[in-house]
Design goal:
The complex is a heterodimer of chains A (271) and B (163). Chain A is 31% helix and 23% strand. Chain A has 271 residues and is of the alpha+beta class. Chain A has three domains: 46 residues, Uridine Diphospho-n-acetylenolpyruvylglucosamine Reductase, domain 2 (2-Layer Sandwich); 112 residues, 2-Layer Sandwich (Uridine Diphospho-n-acetylenolpyruvylglucosamine Reductase, domain 3), CATH 3.30.465.10; 101 residues, CO dehydrogenase flavoprotein, C-terminal domain (Enolase-like, domain 1). In chain A, strand 9 and strand 10 form a beta hairpin. The longest helix of chain A is centred in the last third of the chain and has 17 residues. The chains are: A alpha+beta (271), B alpha+beta (163). At the A-B interface, helix 2 and helix 6 of A face strand 4 and helix 3 of B. Chain B: GO terms for molecular function: 2 iron, 2 sulfur cluster binding; metal ion binding; oxidoreductase activity. Chain B: This is 2Fe-2S iron-sulfur cluster binding domain-containing protein. Chain B: InterPro entries: 2Fe-2S-bd (IPR002888), 2Fe-2S-bd_dom_sf (IPR036884), 2Fe-2S_ferredoxin-like_sf (IPR036010), 2Fe-2S_ferredoxin-type (IPR001041), Beta-grasp_dom_sf (IPR012675), Diverse_Oxidoreductases (IPR051452).
């Protein structure tokens, strides 16, 4: 890791002011992507601004309609939350399937969502559940937030403060993991919203990161069964291909994961 | 540079360290406790697992400056004098190690697992929750046996304590 200066602001205003007055700053949350990146000298921020001590970024609040999670909330806290488990069990299950125990004790929902790794879990829930992303300056709907690999609508210096999930009628998450890295090679988050619409978000597979599989959404809105997806394929040219899985295999996995998510509505299916 | 104070195994340790210093470097190189190992240095193998404010974390992926004011327990903090911690004892009895390199991390992760589940563990759960700790010698079999045995003794001890 190159030399850097660590800061731990206590307020949003202090964090933003530090960002704006520093040369080459970066925000730090759980650090479980950023610190390995720094150790490999793939990034060299001169200032690390740790967001975890800012009170607005912590806490989980559940109402009859929404689950609101502070951006610095750790995966383990979401996975263990009785309120989240009751409101959106697939979301708690997703959080409990990220990385491993130690990673879940440090990694945060905001860090994962701001980083937008194409194989990360949370972006699929954010997009499928049509979440609203509250920042220090505005609200961003999920459909406008994800803009390709590691790219989001967040402006330089903008801080993701909390994520507001609409509680769906029901949701399911299915993931096929790379057995070594445990990142998703393909995963599907399927949710039926209270207005009757089904949203299907795919992560781990798309060559532009998380995306909505609209053809599957149309069929599942008509008929929310795995059978409704029979014969539906996805174009391999939209898929990532790498040493772990070629694009046509990932395209196949997407169809299997979507079916499994539907078959496991109200929970998860992780292999 | 930052002045960082971390309470390690009950003792406050204050050092002036570079801000890029990792928690594992603070523990090993600045405080001199070398029981915590660095295996992969990429957040995968779990050899560097310690407890940070009571939770198992990979100390190669935490900045020492971010742990300022925290309480850390390392493998050196488990035994009571010459008496091994029950999880250490179980690893010894079941031969849950061969070369021993991963063992400090395995034991710290296992203590965390047993505590979070109040000792209510089955083999599947132990294997699942040890995903973040890699052992290249044992094939995990005796490690899992050791954790299950320690979990059972934890339950028994707490049942007695409750009576």
């Amino acid at each position: 890791m190159y030399a850097t200066t660590y800061h731990k602001p206590r307020t949003l205003a202090e964090a933003v002011a530090l960002y704006e007055s520093s040369d080459e700053p970066t925000y730090l949350s759980g650090g479980h992507t950023l610190i390995p990146t720094l150790k490999n000298r793939l990034a060299a921020p001169q200032h690390l601004i740790d967001l975890r001590a800012i009170p607005e970024l912590s806490g989980i609040a559940v109402t009859s309609d929404t689950v609101v999670i502070g951006a610095a909330t750790k995966h383990a806290a979401v996975a263990a939350s009785k309120e989240v488990k009751a409101a959106i069990p697939a979301l708690a299950g997703l959080a409990g399937s990220i990385g491993d125990v130690q990673v879940r004790h440090m990694g945060t929902i905001g860090g994962s969502t701001a980083n937008n790794d194409p194989a990360a879990d949370y972006p699929s829930a954010v997009l499928s559940l049509n979440a609203i992303l509250h920042t220090d300056r505005r609200e961003i709907p999920a459909d406008e937030y994800f803009q390709g690999l590691y790219t989001t609508a967040l402006e330089p210096g903008e801080i993701l403060v909390r994520l507001e999930f609409r509680i769906p009628d029901i949701a399911g998450y299915a993931k096929f993991r790379n057995p070594a890295s445990r990142y998703a090679m393909a995963a599907a988050f399927v949710s039926k919203h209270r207005d009757g619409h089904v949203r299907v978000a795919i992560t781990g597979a798309g060559n532009e990161g998380v995306f909505r599989w609209t053809e599957a959404e149309e069929r599942l809105t008509e008929n929310l069964t795995a059978k409704a997806l029979d014969g539906l394929a996805i174009d391999p040219s939209r898929m990532m291909g790498d040493m772990h899985a070629p694009a046509d295999y990932r395209a196949h996995l997407v169809t299997v994961m979507a079916r499994r998510a539907v078959q496991n509505l109200g929970g998860t299916h992780i292999v | 540079m930052s002045r960082v104070t971390i309470t390690i195994n009950g003792r406050a340790e204050t050092r002036e360290v570079e801000d890029r210093t990792l928690l594992v470097q603070f523990i090993r190189e600045h405080v001199g406790l070398t029981g915590t190992h660095v295996g992969c240095d990429t957040t995968q193998c779990g050899a560097c697992t310690v407890h940070l404010d009571g939770r198992a974390v990979k100390s190669c992926t935490v900045l020492a400056a971010a742990a300022d004011g925290a309480e850390v327990t390392t493998i050196e903090g488990l035994a009571d004098g010459q008496t091994l911690h029950p999880v250490q004892q179980a690893f010894h009895e079941h031969h849950g190690l061969q070369c021993g390199y991963c063992t400090p991390g395995m034991i710290m992760a296992s203590v965390d697992i047993i505590r979070r589940h109040d000792g209510m563990l089955d083999e599947h759960t132990v294997r699942h929750e040890l995903e973040g700790n890699i052992c290249r010698c044992t094939g995990y079999h005796n490690i899992v046996k050791a954790v299950l045995d320690a979990a059972e003794k934890h339950r028994a001890a707490h049942a007695v304590a409750a009576e």
